Inverse folding.
């Protein structure tokens, strides 16, 4: 063991000795699961004179458990891939993106905690060196003399010793950038069909994914932005700040909350945007901007600012920042999940909240700077202050739990669709009434054309017809269906009703999904049909529209590649229903022109543009 040795350093031996002396005989067992110490601790045990029988006892037990755990780990990851295959849908893609986002946030937090200061110091050092090199250049010096007034202004703007130097410059730049984003999102909401289309489809997708279990969770989360909780929490925070003699913060906290109320009200009044049509519960105000998103940034952001400003530990500062970020994002997403806001409402709320928070923080910093001291009041932290603080925090938690437990918002009732009767040809009716003939992407671009129109008495007849033909109805996404996916993967069972990729038509998600395995009986290949229930009626029968596709392979681990020949798949669906004697009548019409296109994931498809009108028994 030498420090020059790349594998066996003296430090490793020292760590092994410390580990052995700390844990004794059981260190043989524990070290088996600690990579760097796995080989060193037995060596230390030998030179320390550990008894042979005791060593063999711990070594055999640890070897058995170590090998078993690794076999189970391999089995788990092998079946994890099966899980991905079973449920590789656009929902899976969304979940994957969310998980990757959380992992990315964790990595950024980890790097910031470990190396944030060194990275910042390195950047500052490099910037200073570059600046010195540029300023010492003779040509640059001549330029500075020629335009002395301009460069004097730049020097003043970058002066770190004055609040109105570099700090104020950075605040103004950041404020201006966020302000431009805010006005940009207002313009998009008022004029952009793409933003409005995406908002509508995201709202409908989240409504499709909604489940009672997750709805309860997000109702509790959204209450963190409810005005009763915020005001109650602000009172408690004010009392704590008073105890800790941080009384300057109290005025600015309430200033930020008052500004939040004023600008939230004015924004809703000016934009006058209606809320989504499928909320969990009713809200009586307009939609843009999201008041919950605003107050999340302002209130929780200001709390994080106070804590970060007065806490010395770098790691704690970083953890507070990311905890605040998580709370803000969770509140914003809860508004989307509960269907009370569009995505652009939440984004606009974040931006406006950030503008208010930045302004209040700048005013506070300017006041502190003008006093010439950052800390004016020093408090001796006594046991009574700590107990009082803990008591106030406990009261806040009890208040939140009590309010959330008793909170009963007015539940929204879905509006009944107005029934329209089709007279004449279906294709002509669709064209005359501008009813979409294509499925759509998230932003409303056309995908595959509709391949079917089903005429059925009701939903039961539709479902029974497909089940009789050997199709399985796809379950909705829920905790129960996710548990079934995991169970099917671990126990190597089939899950014929696994949730499938939702798709859009007329801005809404499909109401029904049916799937059928191919002859290969593999999760890679499956027949899919997605069906939307319309408000149209013909001859007293409900009109359903549908698209069909054949999955042929796993793509990107989270979705499937489709067979480009969707006409053959349409024929397969029709023949399967016909073979099961579920059809009363069939008709094929030219619905759209011949088309060669791509779906949302870039898969090519082609079709002759014909559509089957199938009347179910």
């Amino acid at each position: 063991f030498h420090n020059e040795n790349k594998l066996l350093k003296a430090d490793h031996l020292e760590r092994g000795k410390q580990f052995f002396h700390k844990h004794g005989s059981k260190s043989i067992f524990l070290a088996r699961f600690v990579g760097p110490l796995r080989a060193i601790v037995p060596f230390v045990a030998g030179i320390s004179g550990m008894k042979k029988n005791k060593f063999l006892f711990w070594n055999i037990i640890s070897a058995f458990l170590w090998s078993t755990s690794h076999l189970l780990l391999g089995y788990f990851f092998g079946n994890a891939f099966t899980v991905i295959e079973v449920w590789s849908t656009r929902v899976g893609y969304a979940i994957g993106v969310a998980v990757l986002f959380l992992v990315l946030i964790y990595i950024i937090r980890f790097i910031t905690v470990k190396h944030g200061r060194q990275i910042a110091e390195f950047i500052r050092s490099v910037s200073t060196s570059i600046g010195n090199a540029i300023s010492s250049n003779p040509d640059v010096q001549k330029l500075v003399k020629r335009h002395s007034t301009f460069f004097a202004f730049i020097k003043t703007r970058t002066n770190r010793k004055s609040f109105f130097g570099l700090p104020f410059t950075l605040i103004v730049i950041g404020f201006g950038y966020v302000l431009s984003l805010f006005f940009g999102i207002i313009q998009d909401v008022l004029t952009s069909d793409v933003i409005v289309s995406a908002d509508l489809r995201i709202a409908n997708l989240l409504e499709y994914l909604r489940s009672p279990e997750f709805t309860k969770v997000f109702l509790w989360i959204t209450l963190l932005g409810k005005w009763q909780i915020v005001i109650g929490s602000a009172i408690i925070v004010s009392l704590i700040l008073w105890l800790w003699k941080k009384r300057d913060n109290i005025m600015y906290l309430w200033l930020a909350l008052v500004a939040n109320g004023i600008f939230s009200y004015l924004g809703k009044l000016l934009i006058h945007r209606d809320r989504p049509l499928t909320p969990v519960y009713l809200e009586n105000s307009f939609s843009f901007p999201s008041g919950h998103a605003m107050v999340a940034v302002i209130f929780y952001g200001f709390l994080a600012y106070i804590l970060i400003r007065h806490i010395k530990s770098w790691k704690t500062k970083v953890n507070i920042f990311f905890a605040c970020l998580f709370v803000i994002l969770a509140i914003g997403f809860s508004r989307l999940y509960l269907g009370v806001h569009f995505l652009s409402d939440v984004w606009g709320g974040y931006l406006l909240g950030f503008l208010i928070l930045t302004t209040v923080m700048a005013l506070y910093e300017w006041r502190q700077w003008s006093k010439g001291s950052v800390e004016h009041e020093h408090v001796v932290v006594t046991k009574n202050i700590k107990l009082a603080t803990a008591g106030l925090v406990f009261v806040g938690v009890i208040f939140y739990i009590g309010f959330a437990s008793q909170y009963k918002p007015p539940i929204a009732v879905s509006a009944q669709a107005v029934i329209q009767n089709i007279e004449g040809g279906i294709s002509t009716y669709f064209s005359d009434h501008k009813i979409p003939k294509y499925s759509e992407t998230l932003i409303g671009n056309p995908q595959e054309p509709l391949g079917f129109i089903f005429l059925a008495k009701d939903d039961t007849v539709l479902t029974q017809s497909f089940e009789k033909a050997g199709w399985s109805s796809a379950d909705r996404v829920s905790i129960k269906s996710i548990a079934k996916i995991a169970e099917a993967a671990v126990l190597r069972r089939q899950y014929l009703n696994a949730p499938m990729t939702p798709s859009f038509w007329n801005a809404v998600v499909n109401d029904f999904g049916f799937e059928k395995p191919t002859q290969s009986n593999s999760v890679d290949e499956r027949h899919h049909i997605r069906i939307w229930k319309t408000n149209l009626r013909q001859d007293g029968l409900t009109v359903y529209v549908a698209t069909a596709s054949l999955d042929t392979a796993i793509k990107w681990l989270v979705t499937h590649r489709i067979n480009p020949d969707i006409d053959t798949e349409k024929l397969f669906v029709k023949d399967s229903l016909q073979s099961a004697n579920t059809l009363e009548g069939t008709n094929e019409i030219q619905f759209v022109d011949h088309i060669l296109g791509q779906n949302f994931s870039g898969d090519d498809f082609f079709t002759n543009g014909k559509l089957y009108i199938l009347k179910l028994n």
In short: DSSP finds 20 helices and 15 strands in the chain. The CA atoms of residues 309 and 317 lie 8 Å apart. The chain has three domains: 10-86, 163-406, 420-616. Residues 420-616 form one domain.
